[in-house]
Amino acid sequence: MARIRSLPELLVNQIAAGEVVERPASALKELLENSLDAGARSIAVELVEGGVRRLRVVDDGSGIEPEDLPLAVARFATSKIESLQDLERAATLGFRGEALASIGAVARLAIASRREGSRHAWRIACEAGVVCVPEPAALAAGTAVEVEDLYFNTPARRKFLKSEATEFARCEEAFSRIALSRPAVAFSLAHNGRRNAHLQPEDARSRAARIVGEDFACAAVEVRSESARLRLEGLVAAPGFTRATREAQYLFVNGRFVRDKVVAHAIREAYADVLHHDRHPAYVLFLELDPAIVDVNVHPAKSEVRFREPNAVHQFVFHALSRALAAPMAKIGDVPQFPSGETAPAAGGNWGTSPIFEQQSLAVSQPRAAYEALFATAIADERRSEAAPAACAAPALGYALAQLHGVYILAQNAAGLVIVDMHAAHERILYEGLKSALDAAALASQPLLVPIAMTASAEEVESAAEGRRELESLGFDVAAAGPRELVIRALPALLADLDATGLLRSVLAEMREYGASRVLVERRNELLATLACHAAVRANRNLTVTEMNALLRQMEDTERAGSCNHGRPTWVQFAMADLDRLFLRGR
Ligand SMILES: Nc1ncnc2c1ncn2[C@@H]1O[C@H](COP(=O)(O)OP(=O)(O)OP(=O)(O)O)[C@@H](O)[C@H]1O
Ligand SMILES: [Mg+2]
Fold this sequence. Notes:
By secondary structure, the chain is α+β, with helices and mostly antiparallel strands. Strands 1, 2, 3, 4, 5, 6, 7, 8 and 9 form a nine-stranded mixed β-sheet that branches. α13 (422-441) crosses α17.
């Protein structure tokens, strides 16, 4: 083997460029982040040939001192951090001091910049790592960075670039993510001399409408949750407005677009109850937390983060979203919102607090009886309210008029006509009732007469030991019986009939990956959903007007009543204006 030697600086930067500047879109992202870090209020982007021929970003930010210009393109030179402590709490998008150096190693780079109060701007050029001396230039206060002929000196790399249209689409996506993250900043984008986007400073919902789509922004449910250390805000698709692909899923952690499997998993879980498995929710979510408890220095492109307490983040996001999605009647048409009762659906958190063995009283074997009882109280309430209609405000879903072909309920409310899918609606009511009945009873544990021994991987044995408390709260009693063996001494009572070792394996795997497990809740919910489906009123059953009204009142009081367990809507509203339009009235 040859002797070891240090590599020349240009080659070092070219190697770094492989990770930081994978394609024009990644260079664009770096330039936009620099502009935001410089406090820009307005940023203009011009691209030529998908950004490969030319990429120019002009901002009105703080600018760079002329003496600092050569440092801006030097590797490991940054104005954003000074020490390890700074790195650990960096609030800026950049901090590695390598983006411009990497770009300068694989493209022709020029930076012109003017600090406020300076007589003119200064410009510096860098080609294949060779930097020229700064010279005077013309520019308003701010910075203009120009990248030309990306990969002109690394032909092998150039070959990996896709068509102009594809590279442009990726640049557009990078632009969209940044623009979404800062609605208060103005952005413009031009490609090959044609203006592509022009965004004025606006609020977050209008920015989302411009970038994700009007339909999304109009129907989206607002999320806003805060705990001592975490805050989640943004918009998520209403259950009836989901998509066939995973596009339009934007998560920003401390203002930075990232892909994160812990949060993605929590979001999926929150939708589990209202979404068909092959549909995907669109969302624009901003998670804010103390920079000290999240590590962004995981990957050179900073597209991933690592949370110090993934479990806490998972729980927080899951509860925040569940609460937002649970609001009864959430976002269907312009119907006024109902008081949601503000209770978070219990998910694991309140399990295991009551003594074990209580769960035997669970009404699983006779859900029908349990629900007929519930139904009866609602009918009684309904009768009472019919007797004194003036005493309460007009209900959102109005009053039943008739039943259509044994499938739909027609009702009249203040806005116009409401059509309810009676089976789907009843199914949801029963399902939610079963869930809260169970949550209230807490998940009990059933000791096994003969403990089950299972072989396990070293990792599984370790997770079982570490997650002992969490496992107990789920109803499991598990202990290590050797370096590669676990014994199950007790199981969650409700799920005792299921494959115990398979169940424990999934729980351990999920706890390892996401810091928390919802496998059991999911299995339980699947069971309950099946029960609810069987117990719900079948099509072709004639309901009396009183029964129909009782169903409407229950819907108004039920969380997630806007959609059935598979994400289909349970009711639709036809406003008088819609009907007038159908009949060409008032034209
Ligand atoms: N648009 C800009 N306006 C003002 N200063 C800028 C701008 N772009 C770059 N700079 C300055 O140049 C320095 C180097 O930028 P560069 O992107 O290479 O590194 P960084 O942003 O510090 O870290 P990272 O490599 O993580 O992006 C920055 O620290 C900043 O001081
Ligand atoms: Mg940077």
